[in-house]
Design goal:
By secondary structure, the protein is of the alpha/beta class. It has helices at 95-117, 163-172, 180-197, 201-210, 218-228, 247-270, 289-310, 323-337, and strands at residues 4-5, 12-13, 27-30, 35-40, 50-52, 56-58, 70-72, 86-88, 134-138, 148-150, 153-157. The protein is globular and about 65 Å long.
């Protein structure tokens, strides 16, 4: 995520700002411009970095989900590119779940912004009713909710937004890292397997070489994982213990880490902590591109971990990337770098 500056007064802004805390100008995030713009009227709206309040307004989920994304004005208030992907949410009477819903949508907007920066295809249910991308954000307080992906639909248990609940699960599952954004990045990995890998014979064959058989019995693998745990030497070939469970989970875990790395590098570059070449808009293409990404990432991750330790906190990135994981991630990088918003638009085959 880049560093945002108020076009009117030059104040530094956060991705979530809907008002500049310095000059009090109303702001909205433009996904097309990948920046925060001032919402103004009259002659002021014609300046660079400003949009006309007669033509643009904030998403209809401004209050419900604290959404600060711009939409074109319409007689019926519209949802933004991120919010419109949410198929199911808590009902208006469930005030507790709605608080968690807003937190989940905040994380989802970061996900959608990064996917757009990487020019990965986002095909919604309106375009592809059977396998298009959609989100069911549900509360497990009164019913069972299983976070996961099926046929393009990503389901998230909103209890993951509760710090205590999430930390208890993290410890119980012996996970070094567990966040809302991490869940979204993992589940979107499943979505992109079906949209970008399973539709290509060459990619499917390469996937099998690196990860294994994606069609292997999932329930049997799940039972085996929770009965026996990961292999003793799993750290040599997998990015996490959960990745050992099934080739599909290995892909999703590795995909999530690729997104962690790209977005964190982009943010670090915006604040001059990493080289400018790390930003999305300065893509390093070709066979050497992935090597340069990793060459920038490893010292950055080490330094961020040391900074966290200086503050008495756990490592920011508590993972090791062995050679086998880097080769799996290189495959993901080659797919991401070779994809555009108009390319690889084949129909998803199924889940």
């Amino acid at each position: 995520m880049r560093d945002f500056i108020c076009p009117k007064c030059g104040q530094h802004l956060a991705f979530e700002n809907s008002v500049c805390l310095s000059c009090r100008s109303p702001l909205g995030f433009s996904l097309d411009d990948m920046t925060l713009l001032v919402i103004a009227s009259g002659e002021e709206s014609s300046q660079a970095g400003f949009v006309d309040s007669d033509k643009y307004e904030l998403c209809a989920n401004l209050h419900l989900a604290e959404c600060n994304w711009l939409v074109e004005k319409n007689p019926v208030r519209r949802l933004c590119t991120s919010c419109v992907l949410t198929r199911t949410r808590p009902n208006d009477a469930d005030t507790k779940a709605l608080v968690a819903f807003a937190e989940a949508e905040k994380a989802k907007r970061r996900l959608i912004a990064e996917l757009s920066e990487l020019t990965l295809p986002i095909v919604g249910r309106d375009e592809d009713p059977d396998f298009g991308l959609a989100f069911d954000l549900l509360s497990s307080e009164y019913e069972k909710v299983f976070t996961g992906h099926e046929n393009g639909v990503i389901t998230l248990d909103l209890a993951e937004g509760d710090d205590v609940h999430r930390e208890q699960l993290r410890i119980a599952m012996d996970e070094p890292y567990r966040t809302l954004l991490g869940h979204f990045r993992h589940e979107i990995g499943h979505y992109y397997y079906y949209r970008l890998v399973s539709t290509s014979q060459d990619r499917t064959e390469r996937f099998r070489e690196l990860y294994g058989d994606a069609e292997a019995d999932y329930q049997a693998a799940l039972d085996r994982h929770y009965q026996n745990g990961p292999p003793a030497d799993w750290e040599e070939n997998y990015v996490s213990s959960y990745a050992t469970m099934h080739p599909a989970e290995d892909w999703a875990e590795t995909f999530a880490h690729y997104l962690h790395i790209r977005d964190t590098l982009d943010t670090a570059a915006a604040f001059s902590i990493a080289p400018a070449a790390a930003t999305f808009e300065r893509k390093v293409l070709g066979p050497s591109g992935f090597d340069q990404v990793i060459d920038m990432w490893l010292p950055l991750a080490w330094s961020l971990n040391m900074i966290n330790r200086s503050m008495g906190k756990q490592d920011l990135y508590p993972f090791v990337l062995p050679a086998a994981v880097l080769e799996k991630m290189r495959f993901i990088h080659s797919i991401v770098e070779g994809t555009t918003l108009t390319g690889d638009s084949e129909q998803i085959l199924g889940a």
